[in-house]
Protein: Sodium-and chloride-dependent GABA transporter 2
Organism: Liparis tanakae
Amino acid sequence: MSEKQGVDISLVAESGPGLVFIVYPQAVTLLPWPQVWSVCFFTMIILLGIDGQFIGLESIMTSLSDVYPSQIRKGFRRELLLMLICASGFGFGLLLVSQGTLVFLLLRYTPMRFNNSYVYPWWAYCIGWFLATSSVMMIPVTMVWKLSQVKGTLWQRLKMSSQPAGDYPVGTTEIESTSTSLHFPDVDKMAMGTKMPIL
């Protein structure tokens, strides 16, 4: 790709996890039958991830089975321990994919650089922060607006704003009675006596 663009290879891509999802897929598109190679490439990535999970899980299971052989190797205890390890790993993994990561990124914020050399101008940072916060800022703005529309103390306002509106159908019978489906009696009558041709 660097030869095709006529630039040095260090300018085409940086090393790191982005290499797998940006540079390699672009390189695969240059091969003959790129769709087949793309399926093979991403299947390989998924299998590598699963392989890494098996290695980590089996190393924990084997070490615990070697330390406590009489307790773990009875009945279905190995499978139960395996399920416990998987569930705890899933729980800890949720911490890594939740919005807490966003908070930590904001706490350790450093200005973004391209290729560790190019520093973006201040106005580019302003545009980036505006775009990043524009979708999120509607939540507190709407909350403040709703709180300002309700009368009472702050606690009463929060309580009233947290409840559904009075005209909101709560039960299924209310939802069915307020159904907005359209019925045209004349059309329904005509359609009842009509025989549809079978194609």
